[in-house]
Write a structure and sequence with these properties.
The chain has helices at residues 11-21, 23-27, 59-75; strands at residues 2-3, 31-36, 39-45, 79-89, 99-110, 113-122, 127-141, 144-145. The chain is of the alpha+beta class. The strands form two sheets. The protein has a six-stranded antiparallel sheet. Strands 1-8 form a two-stranded parallel sheet. A hairpin with a 2-residue loop joins strand 2 (31-36) and strand 3. The longest helix is centred in the middle third of the chain and has 17 residues, at 59-75.
């Protein structure tokens, strides 16, 4: 995406550009609630088509939400990042209709490599997942000068 930028874009502008091209997040109803350098909060409501045969939200969907929060937090500086490794634990289940919030914070950033932690909680504050991911800066910018 090319835009006329005279200075480093704001994290909110970067997030808007990311969301415009993020077909996967949009198709799953993921919204960016808050973003800053090394920080993002993403939200999603669990739909019936996200539930597995046990009636709970599929772990891969929760992983998607957490990884999306990581991407927005890591790329908020306008430097594109990709996840290189990630792990997740699920201390509780999410069910259809649950509103989930994924809050991501940078744990460490050095040069091109970063480590990010994400807590996914139900709206009532109960922890659903703990995610840790490593990132690599690609050298690309999200918003490029026109």
């Amino acid at each position: 995406m090319s835009v006329d930028i005279a200075t480093t874009p704001l994290p909110a502008d970067v997030a808007q550009a990311l969301m415009a091209g993020d077909h996967c997040a949009r198709s799953h109803g993921i919204e960016c609630r808050e973003v800053d350098e090394g920080f993002a909060v993403m939200a999603m409501t669990v739909r019936e088509d996200m539930s597995n045969s046990l009636g709970i939200c599929h772990g891969g969907i929760i992983f998607l939400l957490a990884d999306t929060a990581l991407a927005y937090a890591a790329s908020a500086t306008n430097l594109a990042n990709v996840t290189t490794t990630a792990s997740i634990s699920y201390p509780a289940a999410a069910r259809t209709g649950d509103n989930l919030l994924a809050e991501c914070r940078v744990a460490h950033q050095s040069g091109k490599a970063g480590i990010y932690d994400v807590a996914v909680r139900r709206e009532d504050g109960n922890l659903v997942a703990v995610f840790r991911g490593n990132t690599l800066r690609t050298g690309d910018q999200i918003l490029r000068p026109a």
